[in-house]
Give the backbone structure.
Amino acid sequence: MAVIGSDQRPALSLNGVSKSFEGIEAVVDVNMEIATGESRALIGPNGAGKSTLFNLITGEIPRDKGRILVRGWDVTHQPVRRRIELGVGRTYQTSNLFMDMTVRENLFLSVWKRGRPPAGPLATLFRAWTGYARQFTQVMEVAEQVGLNNKLEVPVSELSHGEHRQLELGLTLGHKPAMLLLDEPMAGLSANERAFMTNLIMGLRGWITILIIEHDIDIAFRVADKVSVLHQGRIIAEGTPSEVRANRLVQEIYTLSQKGNGRGHA
Ligand code: ADP
Ligand code: MG
């Protein structure tokens, strides 16, 4: 497997990106550059603006100010569809799964979307066949990447919650994104499922550019090359996991937010 989208341009650049909701500054003047192949964690307390930043990157909500570049292309004013074409992939919730179909069928549909039969009778047949074979191989590859290669013939309705999340990841990978946006992929998973999902993400590291929002900072620090800390819409720290862990401001914010919401992590 080759590194997808490997070139000199950053996978993602954000220049002065801001977004307010009725006076609430959700994202304020965010600058961020993610290199191709990098794994970046985005952490910060609840309400810091992390999910909003994802929505700005995918184009689901328009930004107020700033520029957004995907692999060097200015997508600031481009719709979601165009950003997906350029390689932005994000996981969606369970509603995206076809429950009465098998894992194989779901994955096949996800990879099939890329195929388009050419004109001319023989060419059509030939390409349809090679296209089919290629998509079939890709289904196997993706199934293995998300740990579902032993469940290919199982109806999705019979999978566990954790397996549903794995399949959602698989559907996104089926589109061959250059960059994967994961918004709290461990949310609602059991300890075992979390460990499994962490390993899956570790396995994708380096093959695909990853931007992951993760509540559990120990997991975030494990899967990321670099960490960006968002607080009240602003990036307040950025660096390697050990740099960010040692950052006084980050320690203060996390101690405060733990007191505030009673969680073991924030
Ligand atoms: P995080 O993902 O870091 O927990 P969010 O990005 O969800 O934070 O939210 C950041 C802030 O923006 C919060 O104050 C939240 O209430 C507000 N916000 C997010 N989305 C909307 C929206 N669609 N309309 C109004 N306010 C929103
Ligand atoms: Mg969020």
User: Anything to note?
Assistant: The chain is about 40% helix and 20% strand. The CA atoms of residues 18 and 42 lie 16 Å apart. The radius of gyration is 19 Å.
